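job 3f2a | input accepted
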Amino acid sequence: MVENYPMERSPVMRPHALPPELQGWNWGAFFLNWVWGLAHNTWIALLMFVPGVNLVMPFVLGAKGNAWAWANNEWRDIEHFQRTQRIWARVGVGAFVGIPLFFAVIFAIIMTAFHSSTPFEMTMERLRGHPAVELHLGHPIEASWWTSGDIQLRNSNGWAELSFDISGPRGTASVYIHMIKERGAWRYEVLQVIDENGTNILREEAL
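job 3f2a | predicted structure (207 res):
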């Protein structure tokens, strides 16, 4: 006589209902979405790569994460599940806070380096005392925090290209400078100031 045994179901098909104590929001799934999904055999998390769907998918994963993680993986017990998801939650919150903070610190370091550079300081000192600039923008002249460009130095030589905005009581303007450093001394190749209407307030070029 042959006995018929039920086929063993894969973890994805296990009919285990989510225990009541595991009901709730999954912060690890919400913050780490597709990474969490790959680790928990929850392939629906890959919808994070679909434009439009990725806007709502973190919320779906947060709401359904516990149920999917419980159904799609083998767990020793409820405590094992809870401990694992707490770790994912801590990592997710850490990434959510830490990654933007990291880039903010890098941005602040770069902007501070630009603002403390000799080309920037020379330019601001020159513009603050320039009659044409003060006539258009008023007094005092202040620089915006955002500065773009590049500064390259090699021993006593180098060059700098910077763009940034300045403002005064009467309006704002954009500044562009190209400077050369030779034998330790900086000089302007181009110094240009254009107001918000596109009018050249100042343009100086080396001969």
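job 3f2a | The two ends are 105 Å apart (CA to CA).
job 3f2a | closed
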